[in-house]
Design brief:
Blueprint (H helix, E strand, L loop, with lengths): L2 H10 L2 E6 L2 E5 L6 H14 L16 E6 L2 E5 L2 E5 L14 H13 L9 E7 L5 E4 L11 E7 L2 E5 L9 E5 L4 E4 L8 E3 L14 E7 L3
Antiparallel strand pairs: 1-2, 2-11, 3-6, 4-5, 6-13, 7-12, 8-11, 8-13, 9-10, 9-12
The chain binds succinic acid and fe (ii) ion.
């Protein structure tokens, strides 16, 4: 471990909660970077605005999404996939800001996933009422790499399920700055988000923003 990475991890001093082997919530881990994250988000969403995509079943997602990084997660009537280009304008997604990459790497390393190199960052925007039903993240090629998920803005109730859709999920309150990492035996656990309640956050306004880092290719 290099000195700078070690310092990065210790300076954050996050309190950890292990939900099950391979899945940990790092409370407040992203707070230190909040201003830089929101500055970068503004650039990203100017170049690639949030959009409500359509699921393969024909439903408009209540969560609005955009991406940064080499690959972006998209959905349309033909299915879910990772795409190098934004289907809205055919352009590559905005590149992943260093502060995003470093945050994801520090979080992964601090819970035992060193050398994490995510190539995709999905940005989810939840407005009051928006929700995400239980699903597994399984469009990625390599399940050895963990998922790193950063919660910003209004708090939400995250559902943390098991390996089967029917496993009763735990309810975990995720607030501004919390980072969740799941990998190894937890990599394919079902998860989702309950409908967002009304609220306000000084940086995010009346919404919740979630950054989900993945190694897609
Ligand atoms: C996701 O599963 O893509 C997002 C989860 C979250 O918003 O916390
Ligand atoms: Fe997910």
């Amino acid at each position: 471990m290099t000195l700078s990475l070690f310092e990065g991890v210790t300076q954050r001093q996050a309190q950890r909660e292990e939900l099950c082997p391979g899945a940990t919530v790092l409370r407040g881990f992203a707070i230190r970077d909040e201003a830089a994250i929101f500055a970068q988000l503004s650039n990203i969403t100017t170049a690639a605005p949030f959009r409500h995509m359509v699921t393969p079943g024909g439903f408009r997602m209540s969560v609005a999404i955009t991406n940064c990084g080499s690959f972006g997660w998209v959905t349309d009537r033909t299915g879910y996939r990772y795409d190098r280009a934004n289907p809205e304008n055919g352009k590559p997604w905005p590149s992943m800001p260093d502060v995003f990459l470093k945050l994801a790497q520090d979080a992964a390393a601090s819970v035992g996933f060193p050398n994490y190199v995510p190539d995709a960052c999905l940005v989810n925007r939840y407005e009051p009422g928006a929700r995400l039903s239980l699903h597994q993240d399984k469009n990625e090629r390599d399940f050895n790499a963990p998922i790193v998920s950063v919660s910003l803005g209004i708090s939400a109730v995250f559902l943390w399920g098991g390996l089967r859709r029917g496993d009763k999920p735990m309810r975990v309150q995720l607030t501004h700055g919390d980072v969740m990492v799941w990998g190894g035996p937890a990599r394919l656990h079902y998860h989702g988000v309950l409908p967002l309640k009304d609220g306000y956050h000084p940086l995010a306004g009346a919404c919740r923003i979630n950054l989900t880092f993945r190694k897609a290719a």
